[in-house]
User: Which sequence fits this backbone?
């Protein structure tokens, strides 16, 4: 870029922190989503039927543990998503508060527009003043040259 700016050390470290948070949150979302998919996967039955109560209890315990694990993973997934939303908010705030060149450009553009509007108004007022002065002069001549004065 032509107008590459050198950021102060604090801003650079803040941007590095944002980048690290982004990578960590995305990695967390990916890991948790992968684990949810793995726990939802149906295991193949190797036996024809489960004959004993111990096997059935073991299976129920496994299903309940998987459900708890899914809830934990889903919670972690939601937390990572919320963290990403917070990161986006922080980045927007950083951009708004620290993007001085664009703010200065916007202010300069606004000043330029207002100055041109002021010049246009000044020209119109000057023209109006001149027209009124001419009309007033004509009216005064008419009044002072009339017999009703």
Assistant:
């Amino acid at each position: 870029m032509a107008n590459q700016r050198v950021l102060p050390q604090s801003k650079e470290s803040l941007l590095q922190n944002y980048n690290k948070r982004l990578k960590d949150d995305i990695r967390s979302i990916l890991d948790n989503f992968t684990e949810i998919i793995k726990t939802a996967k149906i295991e193949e039955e190797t036996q024809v039927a489960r004959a004993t109560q111990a096997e059935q209890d073991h299976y129920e315990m496994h299903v309940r543990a998987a459900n708890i694990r899914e809830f934990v993973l889903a919670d972690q997934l939601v937390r990572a998503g919320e963290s990403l939303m917070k990161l986006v908010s922080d980045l927007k705030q950083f951009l708004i508060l620290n993007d001085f060149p664009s703010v200065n450009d916007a202010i300069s553009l606004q000043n330029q527009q207002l100055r041109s509007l002021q010049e246009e108004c000044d020209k119109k007022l000057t023209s109006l003043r001149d027209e009124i002065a001419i009309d007033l002069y004509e009216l005064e001549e008419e009044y002072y040259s009339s017999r009703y004065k």
Q: What stands out?
A: The first helix runs from residue 9 to 40.
